[in-house]
Write a structure and sequence with these properties.
The protein is of the alpha+beta class. It has two domains: 223 residues, Hsp33 domain (3-Layer(bab) Sandwich), CATH 3.55.30.10; 56 residues, HSP33 redox switch-like (CBS domain Like, Alpha-Beta Complex), CATH 3.90.1280. Helix content is 32%, strand content 28%. The protein contains ten helices and 14 strands. Strands 1, 2, 8, 9, 10 and 11 form a six-stranded antiparallel β-sheet that branches. The protein has a six-stranded mixed β-sheet with strand order 7-6-3-4-5-12, covered by helices on one side. A two-stranded antiparallel ribbon has the order 13-14. A hairpin with a 4-residue loop joins strand 1 and strand 2. The longest helix has 17 residues. The structure holds zinc ion. The site of zinc ion has 6 residues, from loops.
């Protein structure tokens, strides 16, 4: 139990920090979630295995969204035959995150493969203006980080490695990515530099990803390699739902169905599954959606 006399432990808060290796064409990103992660968990009642899973996905979304060069969002969505049939997290270009594990009420396992058995992860990059891009990643090897590593190894994209950890209170992650040749045009040297920093990063422990400040973590891992650290950016929990979006979703239903609901209930209440926000619509709010069905309303 936490009391006011507790000494605050090392804490990276909710933030993502970019860094560059000064002597190699490699960039990195270190993400840490704290209150934002706990706010998301507080909305639902998840068992500890599911909470940890959600934390790793949130950290991964924050790391991968560091590549977004435009207004938009990155979505990670898994469908599986395991105890968690659907898990979804989003992170937008302003590092606003939200996430949910749907149908996971009975998920009690702590095991990745049992929770997400035969899972298929869709990574969607969804620009506000422009073409959506989607990649599919089979979840395997018992971890999200290894599945993502595998995906990047077999895709045409830049070499990328990811490390993740979450404990139900905090979530953390580290990403390394090789950049197009600029400092080191020699392919053998590039490969050697990449393997060198990956070997150092691979020594990272879950506890370190969760508990250390970015500077401390990066110093511990790469103290012989000069790094340039950028200003950290804040990550926060912010649901993107709104009354207007909910109303738009309602407008896709069969108007006859809406009329029936209004007649039965007097009004329609829609609840956002990410944040539990309720949106209530009276008949007067839906007049335009129901146009052409007015006759039926009057009957
Ligand atoms: Zn919401």
């Amino acid at each position: 139990m936490k009391t006011s006399t507790d000494t605050p432990g090392p804490d990276s808060g909710d933030q993502s920090q970019r860094f560059l290796f000064e002597q190699a064409d490699i960039r990195g990103e270190r993400a840490h979630l704290d209150a934002a992660y706990r706010e998301i968990l507080a909305i639902h009642q998840y068992a500890s295995g599911v909470s940890r899973l959600l934390g790793e996905f949130l950290a991964a979304a924050a790391l991968l969204s560091s590549n977004l060069k435009f207004e938009g969002k990155l979505v990670l969505q898994v469908r599986s035959e395991g105890q968690v049939p659907l898990l979804m997290v989003e992170c937008d270009d302003a590092l606003q995150v939200r996430g949910i594990a749907r149908g996971a009420e009975l998920a009690i396992s702590e095991d990745f493969d049992q929770l997400l058995h035969n899972g298929q992860l869709a990574i969607t990059i969804d620009p506000t203006n422009g073409q959506r891009y989607q990649g599919i990643v089979p979840l395997e090897q018992g971890s999200l980080a290894l599945s993502l590593d595998n995906y990047f190894r077999h895709s045409e994209q830049l070499n990328t490695r990811i490390w993740l950890a979450a404990d139900g209170e905090r979530a953390g992650g580290l990403l390394l990515q090789q950049l197009p040749a600029q400092l080191s045009p020699d392919e053998a040297l590039r490969q050697q530099q990449w393997e060198h920093v990956c070997a150092l990063a691979a020594t990272v422990k879950g506890d370190e990803l969760l508990a250390l400040r970015s500077e401390e973590l990066l110093y511990r891992l790469f103290h012989e390699d000069p790094l340039r650290l950028f200003e950290p950016a804040a990550i926060r929990f912010q649901c993107s739902c709104s009354r207007e979006r909910t109303r738009n979703a309602l407008a896709t239903l069969d108007p006859a169905e809406i009329v029936e609901l209004l007649e039965d209930l007097g009004s329609i209440t829609m609840e956002c599954e990410f944040c539990n926000q309720e949106y209530r619509f009276e008949r007067a709010d839906l007049t335009d959606i129901l146009q052409g069905h007015a006759g039926k309303v009057l009957h």
